[in-house]
Design a protein that fits this description.
The structure is a homodimer of 210-residue chains. Chain A has 210 residues and is an alpha/beta fold. Chain A is built from 8 helices and 8 strands. In chain A, helix 1 crosses helix 2, helix 1 packs antiparallel against helix 4 and helix 2 packs across helix 3.
Chain lengths: 210, 210
């Protein structure tokens, strides 16, 4: 499956879970097309390629689709992850409630600023970075969000790779590149560069595509 | 110029500005390659395509490069933008200081929650949404970040397009699509879907690319 199809399948899956929570039982290709920003023809083509077939009278059972797409996406238990860097952006992510619907679970934050450290049992605890390795080993955490200041980005990246983190979502303006770790594996790194996105928007407004 | 080259040029430009602030005068293709995550050969190919040539002894003058790339990127005055939705994510963006180095300037926030409204002259002011149109007209604002709750995303999008916003960076999980506005123009919309990025990372860890 190529990455564009993966993004579509993930979008269908998320839309289906939302439709189920509002009580729907059946869905049509054009509903999913709207949610994923594609045409209904592409939805039908994707499903046909995945060997998923609709009902005779048209449409798909939502429960069956969720189960079929969930298997393809490897869904099961909620996915645990942590946030490194608990300034404004990091804290905003820790408190964002939308992830739970997607089966994503932020279980801890880490920061070197002792004013931010807290172990409030009602919330997501924030620990000093020195506890990172131990915590991730104990809780089998493989994915981390990096939201540290730009000046600490590269060091943080090196450190968490040493702690056996395999997947990283990077919010710093530094572009982190996937380099092989000690055990020879290559981490999965996604960079979200907000400044760069904004600059591109201004550029596209100044020089519209033909 | 295709969008991948645009991203590289923007990265070179940002790296050059940083190198200048730390006092460097000259830069080599491999320095920029490191900053942009590409090979030095690609840097040289990009520059040759843009008709930018290095010095006989190798390397480029940073000042000259910044000027040449700045012209290509349409850089001039700082770019003003606003944030709609001043919850945790919106506020984190408003207070993020890294944009200034990139010539980006968040000049106001907007929210319907009156507890968030403030007109503190020392900070970025936050106004009620009812002031949005007037403010953007007065300050000639064309770009907005949307950081409202998912349930308000579509309405906010429709509203700000009506207020003549042409460029949008969307942080809500709803995928906003560029639809023609009243005046027939098509807005530039970039969607940053944090949950989707995380899901893709977990997927790629489960099913590594060959």
């Amino acid at each position: 499956m190529n990455s564009e199809m993966l993004i579509r399948i993930t979008r269908y899956y998320r839309a289906l879970n939302k439709l189920r929570t509002i009580g729907l039982e059946k869905v049509f290709a054009h509903n999913l097309a709207d949610a994923a920003g594609v045409s209904a023809a592409i939805v039908r083509k994707d499903f046909s390629q995945l060997n998923i077939h609709g009902q005779k009278r048209g449409g798909y059972e939502i429960i069956e689709l969720i189960s079929a797409l969930g298997k393809i996406l490897g869904k099961g238990e909620p996915e645990n992850l942590v946030v490194v860097g608990c300034g404004r952006i990091g804290k905003a992510l820790i408190h964002y409630s939308g992830f739970e619907n997607d089966g994503l679970n932020i279980i801890a934050g880490f920061d070197n600023n002792i004013d931010l450290i807290s172990d409030d049992r009602n919330n997501v605890p924030i620990y000093p970075i020195s506890k990172f390795k131990e915590f991730c080993e104990q809780h089998n955490v493989q994915v981390a969000i990096i939201a540290v200041p730009e000046s600490s980005a590269q060091d943080t990246y090196t450190h968490i790779l040493d702690c056996n983190i395999k997947g990283i979502l990077n919010f710093t303006p530094i572009t982190l590149r996937p380099v092989p770790t000690k055990d020879g594996s290559i981490p999965v790194v996604h960079n979200i560069n907000i400044g760069l996105e904004l600059e591109q928007i201004f550029y596209e407004l100044k020089f519209p595509k033909k």
